[in-house]
Amino acid sequence: FDNLFQVDYPKAWRNMVDSISEAADYLPEIPLFIEYKINETRVHCQLDSCAKTIVMLKEVQNKATGITIDFGHSLLAKENPAQVLSLCQESGIDYYLHTNDNDWNFDWDLTGGSRNFLHTVEFLFYAREFGYDKYFTADASPRIFDMIGFFTEHAKMNQAIWELVGSLDRTKYRRLMEEERHMELLALVRKELYRL
Predict the structure, then answer these.
(1) Cα–Cα distance between 57 and 15 in angstroms, integer?
(2) Tell me, what's the pLDDT at 182?
């Protein structure tokens, strides 16, 4: 049994790089976005973080590739979704956004903003900052909800948060962050986001 669970990681990595390179070269007019995830039921995924996926795509060296940033997968990997977005932006890796929500422990595919409202606001804040103009898609598979109702509410929630972020004076928020004026920033969040 000792050899049964051993993985040749360098070979597995090289196989992934080669496979993604081949797929991206096949129809270069169709971009190929890689969606990382820490695990699936009973298996651990090799591409389990944004940083690891960036490293792999840097090896692939194909401008037709990018990362699908799934908000929920980022939470599962104990990442901050807004930081992941910034990491892709700063690394020059193209990205595509999936919205959903969960409790940081399982990929529950909840309506966006329903569990992690402030993280969702921050995520969309930076998407606006970086001029994101692609689609937002809902990577969700509602298990117990009315499907049409779920996706209707999901779209309305994300649109409302997107518009809320668009109404903010983002220059003021950035300035308070840069100057580390945390209490003023928290007061602004309380008033303008939580409206308390």
Answers:
(1) 13
(2) 96
Token digits of residue 68: 């699908």
- Model confidence, pTM: 0.91
Cβ contact 150:140 at 8 Å: yes
CA distance 100 to 85: 15
The pair of three-digit structure tokens given for residue 190, joined into one six-digit string? 């309380």
Query: Tens digits of per-residue pLDDT, 85-98?
Result: 999 999 999 999 99
Task: Report the pLDDT value the prediction gives residue 2, as an integer from 0 to 100.
Answer: 55
68 phi/psi in degrees, rounded to 5: -85, 115
**Strands (E) located in 119-173:** 136-138
- Residue with token string 């109702």: 149
For the chain, first and last CA: distance in Å? 59
Exposed e or buried b per residue across 47-59, where buried means at least 16 C-beta atoms within 10 angstroms of its C-beta: bbbbeebbebbee
User: pLDDT over 70 for what percent of the chain?
Assistant: 96
